[in-house]
Amino acid sequence: MITAPKYINREISWLDFNARVLQEANDKNVPLLERLRFLGIFSNNLDEFFQVRYATVKRIAQSSMTGKKVFAGRTAEALLKEITKKVIKQQDESLKILNGIYKEMERENIFFINHKEVQPNQESFLKNYFIQNVNPALVTIILSQDRSQDLSTNKAFLIVSMKLDTTSNDQNIYALIEIPKNVNRFVVLPKSSDGKQYVMMLDDLIRYHFHMIFSFFNFKSIQAHMVKITRDAELDLEEDVSISYVEKITLSVKDRMISDPVRLVYDKEIPDHTLRYVMQKLKINTTDSLIPGGEYHQRRDYMDFPSLNRPDLLYSAFPPLQIPGLSLEENILDAIDHKDYLLNAPYQDFSYVIKFLREAALDPKVKSIKITIYRLSKVSHIASALINAAKNGKKVLVQIELQARFDEENNINFAEQLEDAGVHLIFGIPGLKVHSKICVIEREHQRKKRRYGFISTGNFNESTAKIYTDYTLFTANQKILKEVNRVFSFLEVSYKIKKYKHLIVSPHYTASALSKLIDQEILNHKIGLPSGISLKLNNITNYPLVNKLYEASRAGVKVKLIVRGICCLVPGVKGLSDNITVLSVVDKFLEHPRVFIFENAGEKKIYLSSADFMTRNIENRIEVACPIYDNDLQQQIIDTFNISWEDNGTARIVNQSPQNKRVKPKDGAASQRSQWTTYDYYKNKLTQ
């Protein structure tokens, strides 16, 4: 008898999530250039997966650890092999999808050309483009068999093999050409007279100009193949007490560039002797994932594929909407005095967050601002507003997380700018990342101090706010903000554990609070009161909470889960999880909010949170979940959750056979893409 597994391995579940992204790239209902960009997202996701998750499993495989149960019965080595097998299959599928997209692009008069297909009338443009934009940025390394050389980046590069003229002493020379980081990967040529649009990969532009790059070598033949190396991205912090925390992070980020390789993707047409030479140079061993690929790698660059002035091949725009009753032209702080407001970006304008901080920076009545920062935009209006506030004499406290993965360097740069402006910086507690999204200000109001603030499910980042869906609550509820201020007191002063009546705060209370909320739903169901649990999450991997949801299901409580990414819970198993359904929505925007809805005998309890149901969010991070008390805002959250739940255009059924099967419209029901319906929902509110 075959029994269903109780849990799905998190690495395998993550790959199943990325398969949903790949489905979007293969969906003929998605605009053509957007499909190309989804391929880029798929590839970028995979890069980060290998840098983080694969690298972690590899570390365990190489260590003396014997705790193999971490991987649900698999040894670490077996899991590495399973991952590699699954990735190779997905990579092959992605290459087929890419080739299909290319053919469809040709029907739209868009053509990719390689270095062998350049037409005479294109030579002058390409030569000038190469000389002006590419050649100055090239890093070209002549490789030597006799000395070790630093090939230490997470970049794609061309490995060049030259056969020299017989009069030369050396008959073969290898060279490495890094693909420039700051030059667009796609060279858009002028349209031809018959309206055809040609695009050339930067790789091929480089190949086309080998005669210029290697003009001093008398080669009789030359060939080049793309190789892409991915390295372990875990930060190993120095234990030296004589250097600052900022210095430790800076050194660790630099060390990441020369850390152990975990994946090598190579052009499957590369000669064996060239591949062996590269592997020797990169110190690739048997635990690393070798992935044969096509001629071009670094497909994450497709995320930034140019629009080519073809709006017909892109998603329709969603101009961000205003929040009813809250004007960007009037005083926001005064409005919040009377009522809570809820922002749902990117459907609604993220500018409200920036305006809140700009008002606080200028308002003479505002005395202090406290905010947590996890990821800032490269050009940050948030940081500018905080600097402005400090220059206006406000007491500004910023908790900035220096270990926000892949944004460490950016955050260090902003930390220096903020500190120079007089902002008081704190960097949190060793071993605990600060992932909460909170802000509180103190302002004089009728001769008393009054607090105003906002609590969010997403980062205070105006760039990602255009593509990530997230809620932000604006409030002057003094009971909630008093507790938000306690979080800052914990971070800033004593690290003494505080008590909270309203907020749910990790790492001290989240596990117990969520367990109690689930227990209450179980009890309510047993005594015949309304019960139910609805959760919207990015990931669910914490086994104790998964088990708690299984317990609720066995008791008869209906559990609705919308999980974008990893889901270790297995729904629909008789006697275990028959009352649990898991959906995932992948569409134009990245679904990012964390929402907890508990039926609570008809008096619903609703929370917005920065935390997923992951062990790291519960035990190793400072997280904040905030209750929503306003009835109108509660209804907005319920309505938008239900819109997502009723999605039958982009929703998939998770961890059921077949995996990632799309939800189909019921008989007679119209097709609904929840993100479009959500936008219309907020648009209609403006006219009510």
Strand content: 15-25%
Structural class: alpha/beta
- How many distinct beta strands? 27
Q: On the 0-100 scale, what is the average pLDDT?
A: 88
Kindly provide the radius of gyration, computed on alpha-carbon positions and rounded to a whole number of angstroms.
Answer: 27 Å
* CATH architecture heading of the largest domain: 2-Layer Sandwich
Low-confidence stretches: 235-258
Distance N terminus to C terminus?
58 Å
What general form does the structure show? globular
The CATH topology annotation of the largest domain reads as polyphosphate kinase like
Count of folded domains: 4
Number of helices: 18
Largest sheet, in brief, is:
10 strands, mixed
Which CATH class of the largest domain applies here? Answer: Alpha Beta
Q: What is the helical fraction, as a range of percent?
A: 25-40%
CATH superfamily of the largest domain: Polyphosphate kinase middle domain
